[in-house]
Amino acid sequence: MVQIENIEKLRFKFCITLDNGQKYYLTKSQFYERGLKAGQEIDPEEFDHWVLLNQYRSALDKAVVMLARRPCSKGEIEIKLFHSGYSSQTIEMVLYKLEKESLINDEDFAKQWIQYRRSQKLGEKKIAAELKYKKNVSPEIVDQVMLETANDETELEQASELALKLNDRYKKENDPLKKKQKIMRALVQKGYSWDIAKEAFMKISDSEV
After folding, report:
1. Could you tell me the residue range of the domain that residue 133 belongs to?
2. pTM of the full predicted structure?
3. 94 and 6 fall within a common domain
4. Which of these, 51, 135, 47, lies nearest to 85 by C-alpha position?
5. Does one domain contain both 65 and 120?
6. pLDDT single digits (tens) 146-197
7. Which H or E element spans position 173?
8. Is 26 helix (H, G, I), strand (E, B) or coil?
9. Does residue 53 share a domain with residue 25?
10. Above 80 in pLDDT, residue 205?
11. 80 and 30 share a domain?
């Protein structure tokens, strides 16, 4: 038997800490259904089983609803379920189920995202950063897929098209140097490397760089 050491009420869930250091995150309905109190003794095996039974189906349903709305990465679903109050064991089982049924695949997701963002004229650096830090795809997968789908000629072409639009946007700028700086800065902010931005600018300008 172990004892409940602390109960912390969070925004959408409760954090239950046992005296053995184990933490559980329960939804509000699960917490009130169990009637847990600080100092209460519980059987850890029975509690683990109860948490799993009460969370798995609803967690799986929530993940499927997410995927029905749009493609998601494994990391996106993991974070969403965690913030919804599901235990790490429940989340692990849900992710395993989704991968087994081919409902999530981070390599395929990364390829789709890369294609989509390239169509919006974003550079490779920004796309890679989005996948790693916003979509929570592992750096290894991102680097691998970016390498597999890389096309320097296409990227330069996209950067050049964007540079033309930027050139038109800043046509009222009379200072050639300031105009160049604005275009180069905008290209880099869009995720293009300095070398690509420089080459794209050279294609639309007679100025020496």
Report:
1. 106-148
2. 0.71
3. yes
4. 51
5. no
6. 999 887 788 888 888 899 989 888 888 888 888 888 998 999 999 998 988 8
7. none
8. strand
9. yes
10. no
11. yes
